[in-house]
Amino acid sequence: MARDDVWILGIHMTKFGKHPNLDTVDLAAEAALAALADGGVSMKDMGVLAAGNLMGAANGIGQQLQKQIGQTGIPVYNVANACATGATALRTAVMAIKAGECELGLAVGVEKLAGAGLLGGGGRPKSDRNVYEPHGRYGSVATIDGRVGTETMPGVFAQVGMEYGHKHGGATFELFARISEKNHSHSTLNPLAAYSKKMTLDQIMGDVMIAYPNTRPMCSANCDGAAAAVVVSGEKLKTLDPTQRRRAVKVSASVLTTDPWEEACQVLPDVNTLTRQAASQAYEQSGVSPEDLDLVELHDCFATAELVHYDNLGLCAEGEAVPFFESGATWRDGRTPVNVSGGLESKGHPIAATGIANIWEVCHHLREEAGDRQIEGATVGLAHVIGLGSACGVHVLERAAA
Amino acid sequence: MGRQIPLVEYLVLGEEPHLEANECSSCGARYFDRRNACASCGGTGFHKAPIDSEGVLRAFTIVSMAAPGIPVPFVASVIDCGGTSVRANVINTTPDPEHVKLGMKVRLATYVVGADDDGTEAVGFGFEPLEEPDGA
């Protein structure tokens, strides 16, 4: 029988950063075991496992993980959905519960990415003799990345931010740098962040330029990490003990979208329309409106991306992202705190872990377990990720008595 | 001069080099690569459509870190060519924010990317500013 009541029972993220002595399975196991312990359950209770590891997508991280922490015969879904891989894993477990196939499920995302450098912009195979021959869907005779625009992530997202500035005005290099200044400042309160160093505006603007207007501290930090969540049906939750019920966080909306066709979406990936559609579906599913949000963890893969998502997520009126940021609204003491974890720019971005780690952050505030970072009295939050290709995950989470 | 071939098939060389899209015969959506069906309407009929060679700079970035072999910095951009968006580098200008401005008018220009072992030259394209910044 279909159900629509799903809760996060347990959740964990590892410290993000460099873990030279741990492999992806170690990190996934650490996150999974701790999420199970946090929820007061074990692998034997799980009815489904969804796992994501983007860089090793062919390796079956789910089954590898089972061999380390419990082979119980349950179905495993290995998912890969660009930077939305973790959110997709969670959504897969949520769907299994909503479909009535099981009562409890585990979602895991893990990535080893420290020192990975620039992502995107694939090259061409080399041959011994160099003779031009049209190749691929564009019939190109040589590498086009860098000659016909750029496919690297910092460049793509730089253009996304600049396009917003062209349309609405006010989006200067300094403004984008101030967004980064906010997130680096927030990260100082996060002991699990890969980088937790406050940076001045001058330091950010004067750092190495990667793709104007994104300097190095304005780009997401490639690092290692894992995150995992245990989800449970409302019906099952009612049978669990009072502590488990008190700490459970309601998944009020779980949405995944891809980008619909728009003029230009294949020239410059459209990160806007799919986010707008995901957000509006999430608000409709949950009955929550943007003004109700006590905190938002959004996909600031680059400082330029954060700006457009204020608008896409409806945190401000359309076209008003610049004045919204300038009002101080998105600082942790503002009206709608955004990325109090430090965001991808400082907390780090181990790709497949990110979509669960942002939910970990929101859950900890809703449970009043966020320590020095706690947003006082938080009862509702939103987590957003986007993956190019494209995929967008939005989850609305609420503290509510089960 | 040896033989020349375009860097990409959608660049048409000759007297007046221009870009050419595969246009969906049902809904008019345009694609620069080969398509199995239209991503917008599902139609399977396509015809060639020439793209305006002048346009307006709608978005850009100045890329300082790129794959080996690609000279940096370069200006990557999206140009609005009469309602069709084109991805291209802005060329024949100084790659800094003083010389490249959102909303500036640009036009298609070609250049030789390199030659292969048979002496065949690959011709690439970019867009160059139509006028100096501030009308100078």
Helix content of chain B: under 10%
Which structural category fits the helices and strands of chain B?
mainly beta
Strand content of chain A: 15-25%
Radius of gyration of chain A: 21 Å
User: Biggest sheet of chain A, in brief?
Assistant: 9 strands, mixed
DSSP helical segment count of chain B: 0
Number of strands of chain B: 10
What tags apply to this protein structure?
heterodimer, A: about 400 residues, about 15% strand, globular, B: about 140 residues, mainly beta, 4-stranded antiparallel beta sheet
What does this structure look like?
- The complex is a heterodimer of chains A (about 400) and B (about 140).
- With about 400 residues, chain A is an alpha/beta fold.
- In chain A, the strands form 2 sheets. Chain A has a 9-stranded mixed sheet, with helices on both faces.
- The model of chain A has no long low-confidence stretch (mean pLDDT about 95).
- In chain A, helix 1 packs across helix 2.
- Helices cover about 0% and strands about 45% of the residues of chain B.
- Chain B contains no helices and 10 strands.
- In chain B, the strands form 2 sheets. Chain B has a 6-stranded mixed sheet with strand order 1-10-9-6-7-8, with no helix packed on it.
- The radius of gyration of chain B is 16 Å and the shape is globular.
- The termini of chain B are far apart.
- Classes of the chains: A alpha/beta (about 400), B mainly beta (about 140).
- At the A-B interface, helix 4 and strand 5 of A face strand 6, strand 7, strand 8 and strand 10 of B.
Write the layout of secondary structure elements.
The complex is a heterodimer of chains A (402) and B (136).
Chain A: E1 6-13, H1 24-39, E2 48-52, H2 61-69, E3 76-79, H3 85-98, E4 104-111, H4 153-168, H5 173-187, H6 201-206, E5 209-212, E6 214-215, E7 225-233, H7 234-237, H8 242-247, E8 249-257, H9 273-286, E9 295-297, H10 303-312, H11 321-326, H12 343-346, H13 351-366, E10 380-387, E11 391-399
Helix pairs in contact in A: 1-2, 3-13, 4-10, 5-10
Chain B: E1 4-6, E2 11-12, E3 18-24, E4 30-31, E5 46-50, E6 54-63, E7 74-81, E8 84-90, E9 105-115, E10 121-129
Parallel strand pairs in B: 1-10
Antiparallel strand pairs in B: 2-3, 3-4, 3-5, 6-7, 6-9, 7-8, 9-10
